[in-house]
Write a structure and sequence with these properties.
By secondary structure, the protein is α+β, with helices and mostly antiparallel strands. It contains three helices and ten strands; from the N terminus they run E-E-E-H-E-E-E-E-E-H-E-E-H. The chain has a single domain, classed as 4-Layer Sandwich (L-amino peptidase D-ALA esterase/amidase). It is globular.
């Protein structure tokens, strides 16, 4: 049943309207995620990628996302992501059945192995969130490998656009696959069948997202 398109919704918080994307899966998926809600490996029924204001300072993002899920009648375990990017600017890319949707914000790009930064909380928010849907069953090991592959593809796109960073400090990802079907593919690396498709789709979505972000921000 994958891939599917997200629903676009809006909600009011502190007198302001904020958009969010909602993916509802007709059948639960097997997923790996790093979001503040539903992170880890397991069965998931839905995904939220919600826009928030740039000064977002809630210390309970999991509770916030749970509230949003309840307000949109989402039941069962799911994954919740937050971004300061307007999800209306999300970029989608496909590669032979793999569907990737990325929201790209680079207000504070950083190197993964950068030295400690005592001023890190004073910088503007920037986040690259990736929602990747794979229409084939993968083993848990392949899902873990798929996250590495997607991250490598993201970094490749950044480097090719001369962004001196491996991402931002708050990047998040979910890779979801169908649970049933043929024998689970044990591979998710960049030269595997589904890993290569995932890499190309992530690269394309992030690449276009970088260009759009630069245009919006005047960079």
């Amino acid at each position: 049943m994958l891939p599917i398109e997200p629903e676009l919704h809006h909600r009011i918080e502190s007198g302001r309207s904020f958009p969010l994307h909602v993916w509802r899966f007709a059948d639960p998926v097997r997923a790996i995620a790093s979001g503040p809600l539903g992170g880890g490996l397991g069965e998931r029924h839905w995904v939220i990628n919600a826009s928030v204001h740039r000064g977002y300072d809630r210390l309970d993002p999991d509770d916030h996302l749970t509230e949003l899920a309840t307000s949109f009648d989402l039941t069962g375990p799911g994954v919740g992501l937050l971004t300061a990017v307007d999800v209306n600017h999300a970029v989608a890319a496909d590669d032979q059945g793999v569907r990737v949707t990325a929201t790209v914000g680079l207000g504070y790009p950083t190197w993964a192995a950068a030295p400690p930064d005592p001023e890190r909380n004073a910088h503007p928010v920037g986040t690259i969130n990736i929602v990747a849907l794979v229409p084939a069953p993968l083993t848990d090991a392949a899902l873990v490998n798929a996250v590495a592959t997607a991250t490598e593809a993201k970094v490749q796109a950044l480097c090719e656009r001369d962004v001196q960073a491996t991402g931002t400090a708050s990047d998040a990802i979910i890779v979801a696959c169908v649970r049933t079907g043929a024998v689970r593919d044990p591979f998710g690396g960049p030269r595997s069948t589904w890993g290569s498709r995932l890499a190309r789709a992530v690269h394309a979505a992030v690449d276009i997202g970088i260009v759009h972000w630069a245009d919006r921000s005047g960079r």
